Amino acid sequence: MKLQALILFATLAAAVAQEFLQEEENRDANEDSEWELYKAKHKKRFKNKDREKMRKNTFVENNRGIKKHNQAGKSTYKLQPNQFADWSEAELEQLKGEIDTDNEIPAPVVSGDILRQAVPDAVDYRKSHCLAKVKYQGGCGSCYTFASTTPIEYQRCMKTGTLVTLSEENLIDCSQKYGNAGCNGGLALRSWNYVKDVGLNTEEAYPYQGEETMCEYSASNYGGNVTTWAYATRTNDEEAIKVVVAKYGPVAVSVDASNWDFYSSGIFSSPTCSNTTTNHAVVIVGYGKDTKTRKDFWIVRNSWGPEWGEGGYINLERGVNMCAISKRAVFPTSGF
Ligand SMILES: *[C@@H]1O[C@H](CO)[C@@H](O)[C@H](O)[C@H]1NC(C)=O
Ligand SMILES: *[C@@H]1O[C@H](CO)[C@@H](O)[C@H](O)[C@H]1NC(C)=O
């Protein structure tokens, strides 16, 4: 039995090695130089040759897919081999980290009166001094903490006149009792429940580490509060979200970001993006209409650093529940 298993294993290993060789033979010189350029551009370093080989294979495969998408030319968005193009599936998974749940946290839904107000055709808070620079979550599934801080930062700044950025690390380290799981995911509303009870430190006092460490919240480093909040819609009504964005500011949302990794520019619109299941938390910071494609879009703030997408942002087709954007749209209504 044991021997058989061993033989089977050896056969499999040989097959894998064969495939590896095959892959390398199929690779053209162009791809080798693309890898060298990529490595230099993103300052990639590797522990050893084997590790580099693995990364290179991932890169070459991803880069082929990226080229294929861009050359097809039918799409309203472009991809690029960004800093994540040599990351493994598991690592790309860690870039997300929202806990999709059917046990929704109860909260009021914004009232119909507000929704009847007239709002501008386009809003873009990226121009506001109350929107912090795009942050980078690194290899920690903490997207939900960034989605939690941005709307509070913005509203507090609108109230006080000064932007004080808030601590995501505080939420990673301290909000487990509220259902969050540090670097393994969480939800904005769970974070806000924590903030309501405890408070939130400033980013300066409690800087980002990108890994779960001991809770070090200190009342003397208080940076903001959120006491009530609401859903913009519970019926996938993107018009309601639009009014809330215009009237209140940034709105935290959940999305399916499975195919966002290599997004570069344009209006993201994909039939493979789920309109029901989500795996990532981000923030809507504006909306508009693209004159070229005639598509309505959301301006969505990500936490994958300023090098990703359009300066850290993605334009997502609006009005078709693209990537389930209307599933869990929440915003603070008091506190700050
Ligand atoms: C947040 O605001 C609420 C309501 O004003 C207050 O009860 C709570 O103590 C505040 N939290 C902090 C940490 O200041
Ligand atoms: C998802 O898309 C399908 C197919 O277009 C549609 O029938 C369904 O209503 C959509 N669901 C949501 C929640 O948007």
UniProtKB/TrEMBL annotation:
Domain of life: Eukaryota
One Pfam family here: Inhibitor_I29
UniProt KW keywords: Disulfide bond, Hydrolase, Protease, Signal, Thiol protease, Zymogen
The keyword DNA damage is assigned to this record: no
Molecular function GO labels: cysteine-type endopeptidase activity
Residue stretches making up the Cathepsin propeptide inhibitor domain: 35-92
GO BP of this protein: proteolysis involved in protein catabolic process
First and last residue of the signal peptide: 1-17
SUPFAM superfamilies recorded: Cysteine proteinases (SSF54001)
Domain Peptidase C1A papain C-terminal positions: 119-333
Keyword Protease set for record: yes
Cellular-component GO terms for this entry: extracellular space; lysosome
Entry's family note: Belongs to the peptidase C1 family.
Record protein name field: Peptidase C1A papain C-terminal domain-containing protein
Protein species of origin: Daphnia pulex (Water flea)
